[in-house]
Description:
With 217 residues, this protein is of the alpha+beta class. It has helices at residues 12-24, 42-45, 64-74, 86-120, 127-149, 162-176, 187-198, 200-203, 206-216, and strands at 3-7, 29-32, 53-56, 59-62.
Amino acid sequence: xxxxxxxAPLSPFVRKxxxxxxxxxxxxxxxxxxxxxxxxWFLELNPLGRIPAIKDGDFALADSGVICQYLEDxxxxxxxxxxxxxxxxxxxxxxxxxxxxxxxxxxxxxVFQQRILNPSKGLPCDENLVQAVLNEKLPLHFDYLEQTxxxxxxxxxxxxxxxxxxxxxxxxxxxxxxxCLNEQRWPNLAALxxxxxxxxxxxxxxxxxxxxxxxxx
Length: 217
Ligand SMILES: N[C@@H](CCC(=O)N[C@@H](CS)C(=O)NCC(=O)O)C(=O)O
């Protein structure tokens, strides 16, 4: 079955999906669709116009979380990224949702958007907003996640899950926006991020992202 991902490499949701596919050993083609400038045919894949979407053969689906869940169900013999028990699976979903819906407005749609996307479109960067996000909003979330992770290697159980990938994908966008996780304040989270970033699946994606970023700057 041929699998196509529609989206853009710098989107954290597209990145999460590509990592999920790679960790499962599923091959795919990326067809670039830019957010906010989607072709009209893309609305048939996602009427909301958001990336990513996929086609797996004739089957079309949108939303990174929904697609990753579909991949678990459709390819149950491949590496699972959703934990081993009902409780673990619920915790993975919670943390994936936490990263996608609580971190993304700050790491991606504030830091990355203001520092990278806006200037690339000739729009100003609202540095006051970035500073408020970095100093007042993100620390509360990182404190919670640091405490949740504790000294474990992964957020849930003893293996990689979508919780780790979703978190790391948001931090990548923050880093693209020029900000690192403070390893003095959040040592466990910073170590987790370094481990996920070092994985071959992430290393395979980042050079292309760096090239795009360099062009945007
Ligand atoms: N919950 C969605 C979020 C997708 C999303 O917000 N994608 C952004 C790009 S990072 C987008 O396409 N924005 C365009 C728009 O909202 O029109 C998912 O996980 O796929």
